[in-house]
Prior knowledge:
By secondary structure, the chain is of the alpha/beta class. Helix content is 20%, strand content 30%. It folds into 3 domains: 6-67, CATH 2.40.50.140; 97-122 and 271-441, Rossmann fold (3-Layer(aba) Sandwich), CATH 3.40.50.150; 129-254 and 256-263, CATH 2.40.50.1070. Strand 3 (20-23) and strand 4 form a beta hairpin. Helix 1 packs parallel to helix 7 (401-412) and helix 6 (376-384) packs parallel to helix 7. The longest helix has 20 residues, at 88-107. The model has no long low-confidence stretch (mean pLDDT 95).
Amino acid sequence: MQLGDTLNISIDDIAQGGDGVGRMDDGRVVFVPRCLPGERVEGKITEIRDNFLRCELVDILEPSPVRREPECPHFSECGGCQFWHTDYQQELDFKTGAAMEALRRISAIEEWPEPTIVEAPETTRYRTRATFHRRPRDGDDGRGIGFFAPGTNRLVEVEDCPITRESVCRARRDVEDGLQDLGDVDIMVESASEDASVITIRVDELPGEPPEPLVDFASRLGDIDSIRGLRIVGGDRVWEEGDCTVDGDQILAELPIESLRMPAGLFRQSNRAANERLVEVVAESVQQGGGGTVLELFSGAGNLSFAMVDEADALLGFEVDERAVELANTIAMFAGIDTWMFREADLADGFHEALKPEEHGIFDQIVMDPARGGAPDVSREIASLQQEVSPDRITYVSCDPPALGRDLAVMAEGGWKPVGLTMLDMFPRTAHLEVVAVLERSAE
C-alpha cells in the first residue's frame, strides 16, 4: 500500500472536523472528506501513518439516503466548508455528536450534563468577515482570488461564497481591479455596515507607497458603495484610505453606546445572529452563578463583557491586543460603566502574574474565551487554586472541542466538573461549533 493507491471504504461515522471515518481490515482508521455514514466510497490515499490513513474522495459507490446535491458549486474543491452534501439537521447531528465524542474521549470526564443544542438562525449568507487569498492560477500566468483547497495552498477561485454575506462578496469583487501589481496577498473583507465593508490587505512588508493601481483605486472609494475603507498592513506599517471604522453592532452583540464606531481589524464573531445567542448563554450562566465580581480572560473588545452589565457587579478583563483593551476601556468610560476595567495581559503563561496583589481571591466567577488552541496554562492555574481563593463558577467558551476537552481534563484534576453544556452552531456548513462549558468545583 502506497500513496496514490485507491481503496473501497465503508464509512461508519463522522469525525471531529467533518471527515467520514472508516476502518481497514488491520484496524487502522481511514479519513475521507465529504462522506456520510452508511456510504461506501472509493478513496485515493494521500497520507499514511501507523494508525490511520487519509484519502481524497474519488467516487461515491453507495450513497447515503440523506446525501443531497451541494448548493455550493465550489464544495468539491474548496476547503472552507464540510457539510453541503446533506441537509442541515443531519449536519447538526453529525457535528454535535462528533464534538461530544471528542469531549468525552479527550477529557476522560465520565459524567456530563445533557448538552443544549442551539441551531444556527441562518445557514447561508451569515459570515460578516472572510479572508480571501490572491495566488497564481493553476496552469496560468495570472492570479485569482478565492480560498484554498483542503490541506493545501492551491487556489480555488471563488467570486461568491454562499455562506458569506453578499455585501462582503461584492466588496471582494470590486477591489480586484486595484490589486493588479500586487503579488501573493491575503485580503480580509469585514462588514462595516449592512451594505459596506472595510478591506484589509496583508503583505509581507510595506516599504513605501502601495502600487499605483491600488492608490488610484483607493482615490475612487467615494464612488464605490461596497467599500467604506481600505487598509494595507505590512510588518509594523499600516496604510489607510477612506473610513476604516466599522459600526459597533457588527462586532458587539450588546451596544452600551449608541452610534458606536470601532476600528477595523479587531477580532469578531463572524455570525452576528448566532453571536447574540452566544452572549445570552454566557450572561445567563453568570447570572445563575450569582453575578458578583467577574474575571474575564481573553476579553477582546468586550463582546462578552458588555453583555454581562446587568448580571455582574464588577468585571476585570485581560486581553493581549492593546487596541482592543484601549477601546474597551473607552467604551466603558463613555457608557458610565465604572466597575468595568480592562488591562493588557499576555495569558500564554497564565493569568496570576497579571493580577495585582490585592486582586487575588476577589473574583466570584471566571469567564474565558480563548483562541482556537485553548488555554492550557490558564487551566493549570485554575486547577491549582486553593479552595479559599477559588471562584465559584467558570464559564468557558471554546471554538475547538478537542482543545476544550484537553483543558477540562486539567481542570478536573483540581475538582472542577461540568454542570452545564451548550453547543451553538455559529458556522453552518462547516465542521466548526462553539461550545460553552459551565464548571463548578466540588467541595472535596
